[in-house]
Amino acid sequence: MDTTSTGNTVKKEAEKEVSAFENSLKSNDTEEQIDIWFYRPIGYQIALFCAKIGLRPNPVTIISIFFGVGAGILFYYQELWINVIGMLLLVFANSLDSADGQLARMTNDKSRLGRILDGAAGDFWFIAIHIAICLRSQNEGWSAWIWVPGVLAGASHVVQSAMADYYRNVHLFFIKGTSGSELDNSAELQKEYDSLSWSKDFGMKFIARTYLNYTKLQESFSPNLQKLLALVRGKYKNGLPQTLVTDFRAQNKPLMKYTNIVQFNTRVLFLFLWLFLDQSWIYFFFDMFVLNPILVYMIVNQEKVSRYFYQQISTEKTNGYQSV
Hints:
Keywords: Membrane, Transmembrane, Transmembrane helix. This protein has about 325 residues and is an all-alpha fold.
C-alpha cells in the first residue's frame, strides 16, 4: 500500500473540505470569532444535511424562528433549569440562522424573500424575549412601567441590528461587488413595490413595504454613505478599481467589530448572565445605555469613512481611483 499516495489523498480531501467551509462564509472581514469557531461550523454541518435532504434555505429560516420564539417564552419562567433550556434553544436557533445563509451560498439558492426572512428572524426572537422579560418582571413585583424600557430597548435593538447588517453589506459590496453583497437601495425597492398590486400580490406587497421601510431606515442614518454609494455606482459601472477596494477595506475593516458587538453574540452572553443572576430586567438597560452608544460611535465613524472616500473619488486631483 502506498502510504504517501493515501496521505496525499487525505490531505487533498481535508483541504477541499476547508475550502468548501470557507466558501460558505460571507467574508472573514465581517465574521466574528465566536461565529467562526462555533456557530459557522455547526451551521455548515446543518447546511450539508439540509442540502442532502433537499431542504431549501427559507424553510430553515422559518424553523429557526420557532426555536428562537420558543426560547423567549422559556425566559418568562424564573426556574433556572427552564431558562437554560431556553438558552440552548436560542443557541440552536442562531445555528439554524447561520445555516440558512451558508446553505444559500452552497447551493446558490439566494432570494430577496430569503434575505427579508433572515433579517426578520432575529426580530421575532427578541420580540418574544422582550415580552417574556416584561411579564416575568411584573411577576417579580415590577409595575407596568417595565414595558417602557422593554419597548425602548426593543426599538434600539431594531436600529442596532439594521445598521450593523447594512454596514456589513456595504463592506462586502466594496470588497466583493454585487455578487458577494446583499446591499439594496430604496429607489430600486420602491420600483418593485410599485409594480405589485394589493389585490393580486397582497402578501408580497406587504413584505415589500416592510422591507422598503427597513431599507429607508438604514439609509436615513447614513447620509454620507448614501452620497458615496451613489457616486460609486455612477462612476464605476464596470467594477471598482482595485486601489479603491484595498484602501476602503483597510479603513473600514476596523469598524466591523462594532457591527458584531451590537448584533447577536455580545447581547446574548450578557442576557444569559443576567438570567443566571435572576436579574433579567438589566438586559433592557444594557441594550439602551451600553449598546446604543456603541451604535452611535459606529455610525459616526462609518460616516467619516464615507465622507473621506467621497471627497477622494470626487476630486479632480485623485488619480488612483480611475474607472476600470
